[in-house]
Every structure is written in C-alpha cells, then in structure tokens.
Description:
Elements: H1 2-16, H2 19-41, E1 51-56, H3 62-73, E2 76-81, E3 94-96, H4 101-106, E4 114-116, H5 122-147, H6 154-162, H7 184-213, H8 216-221, H9 227-255, H10 265-289, H11 293-311, H12 322-328, H13 332-344, H14 354-374
Parallel strand pairs: 1-2, 1-3
Antiparallel strand pairs: 3-4
Amino acid sequence: MNVALHLAWLDLRRVLRQRETWLWTFVMPLVFFYFFGMLQSGPRRSATPNEALILEAPDGGVLVDELEARLVERGFAVERVRQLAAAPPSPGRVLTLPAHFSSDLLAGRAVALDFRRDSGGSAFEYERFRVTRAAWGVLADVVALAAEGRAGTAEEFAKLRAAPRSVEVVVQSAGERRAIASGRQQAVPGTMVMFTMIVLLTASGVALVGDRRRGLLRRLASTPLSRAQLAASKWLAIFTLGVVQLSYAVAVGALVFEVDWGPDVAMVALVLALWAAFNASLALALASLVASEAQVVGLSVLGANVLAALGGCWWPIEVAPRWMQELASWLPTGWVMNALHRLMLFHSGPQGAWTAVVWLSLATLGLAGLGARRLRWE
C-alpha cells in the first residue's frame, strides 16, 4: 500500500505541474460560475421604494393621491408633475394620467392610463404589472364606495382602507419544498460537476495513456508492483485531484458567490466525494481502453459536455421536456445534480440523496473493476 500511495503522490504532483490543469481546475470554473450565474439569474426585482417613476397628472384630485400612495406601496419613488418639460431621465418610467382623471373616474366614465419606459424586456413587464395592480386597486375602491352610496372623498377612502377585510389569506406549508434552481444556485453546482468530469478525464487520462505509450508502465511491470497496486495508485491520484477541485469549488461558491449549500452539508460532501470517485474510475477505464491521448481528449470533452447538457448542469432539468427529465434519471450527471438540488433547494434531508449515493457507488465499483482488469502495461 505504501508503494501505491507513493506512486499516487508522484502522479498527482506531475499533473499539478501542468499549467493546463491549473487553468481548467482553478481559473476557468470561476469564469463560468460568474457567466452562467449572471445569465440564469434573470432581472433584479426590488420591492423597496427605490425605482423612480414620474407621475404626469395634469389635474389633481383625490384619486391621483390614492394612485400615488399605491404606487409607493408597490416599490416606486414617485415624482408628480403636471406636465413633462423635457425627456425624463433614465430609466424613464413615466405614468401619464388623462385630464380630469379623478372627476371622470368618479362619474363612471372610462379613463386610459399610459405607462412608458425607455427599455423593454421582462423588467418592463414586471413594472407594468405593479403599476396595473396599483391602478386596479384604486378602481376597486371606487366601485366599493359607489356600491355603498358613499362619496369619493379622501376621508371615505381612508375609512375604506381601515375597514376589516372580509377575505383573509392563510398561508401554510403544502409539504416538501419545491423550487427551480436559478442563478448561482444552479450555475455553481452545475459548472462544478461538469468541470470535474472534464479535468479528471482529460488530465489524468492523458497522463495514463502517455505513460503506457512511453513505456513507463512496461518498466513498472518488471518491478514487484502488482496490477492491483498500479491501478490503485492511478485511481487514488485521480480521486485526490477531484477532491481538491471540488473542495475549491465549494469554498469559492460559498465565500465569493454566496451559494447556500443547504442544511445537510455532510451529505453534500458525500455526494461530491462519490462524484470524484466515479470520475476517477471512469478515467481509469477510459484510459485502459483507448489507444492514444487524442482519443482520450476527444471522448472526454465530447462526453462530458453531452452528459452535462442532458443531466441538468447547463440549465435546471425541471424546465426541460419530460423526455429529457426521464433521460437525466439514467445519467451520472443527472444523479448528482438531482441529489444536490434535493439537498440544497428542496431541503429533503439526507434520505433525498440516497438514490444517487447507491447508483454512484455501484457505477464507481463497476468502472474501477473494468479499468483494473483492462489496464495494459504496453
């Protein structure tokens, strides 16, 4: 065992001396953490009154005051003007009321509001929804007062707001928490899983094939070292590199990108350790079957990207078609991403990851046995 450990340490040192290993293990994942996290985070939505909105109201009136108050409740910092003298400053949120807005609405006549913003997109739709909600709230109060035969004065609106509501909303848990991963909660684990597979298969697989091509394994065959000891040393070196890479990604994700790894950190660590072990066994088996370094790189990069896409590393598998979700349940990337989502987002407890633990363990043992049996000295 000491010989195997010594060889594993030498292999690990050799792989870590390569600049490509450092680049793809410690640098590029950070770039992808940020890039994919930004793409999947969506627009920032704030419920605090820090979004400037210009309320263009040619006339005053009690309903203008009511609408302004509701806009403030919806998270806008309202500036009321009678008429815009120039183009509004960026971001240019302007809500224009028609002349005689209060008197026409109280008299039962239709009025039209015009909301404009200098840019569109989902942020505009969200803001228009909030403006519409405020406007419909004012209209509902007008209808309620008219139905009771009460005048539309500021005092009557104040009494209406203070009156007890006949409808009460009660919120309680409906069972297991369900959420779709987004932003960095999806990007960091997904990128980490993908890059671990790419680095372990390429860097370690190329090194093992290169040792066989240069005759290093043949020379080791002349020593008392057994095939099992050689396979164990290679596997241990690859596994250790995977643990280093995953530990680094978890630490950076928590400290820099504010990723919440959930309450069951020990189970997350077990799943990630098994992911490193699985890729170590897969790298050993792959390098034992192919004939050249080019084949290792080609199969590793193509296979890792396909498995990452189909297994839910690039996007939440919950938003994919049903057939893709079913396929992910048969893929190793799908096993580990499903386990991480259950532990991090659904808070399902350690039992939520046992399926992934079992499948990863069985696949690791099977691939390790295949790699050890097919390990060629030349």
